[in-house]
Amino acid sequence: MTNVLGRYDFELIAKWIRPGEKVLDLGCGDGSLLRFLREDKGVLGYGVDNDPANVLACVGNGVNVIQIDLEAGLSGFADGFFDHVVMSLSLQTVRHTERLLAEMLRVGRQAVVSFPNFGHRSHREAIARGRMPVSKSLPYQWFNSPNVRFFTMADFEALCAERGIAIRERHAFDEGRPVTEDPNLNASIGVYRLGRAAAPPAG
Q: Higher confidence at residue 200 or residue 195?
């Protein structure tokens, strides 16, 4: 897979988004993804980030950005306004995971999330040695990590099933290479396209 902007998950996300869509990028960083989507597909994009340095970088990239704390929710956005709501490699940094997922699917028709898979074999091996994992996908020490949730792809899929969130597509990667065999063990990153589960038939 081509490594667009140095991020293979960006390449996959870009394939899911159609020209002219409205896109909200949560934890948007410097706005690189939105800038690419605007230039390549003409999307109407908005970024959300709470880091002042990232907000300034977005402005420098010509990206519409709003500085808010994601823990407070997305109450400023109308139901169903966006075609896609994206949260790339940031879901593990929020405390109110369930609420944020619900908010993403309230304001967006579909949601895309990617996150480090805590179930990767290297992380299991580190735990077996009595140490917290440090890897390319989890590059921080336990005492300075911005991550507040550590979960596996299996954990995430169980949460989606419990909360009625439909998994439209799932892709798994390790070192940028696609993983198909036992991704919960062999993948370091999971990327999901989500939607609202269909309502059960009446009667």
A: 195
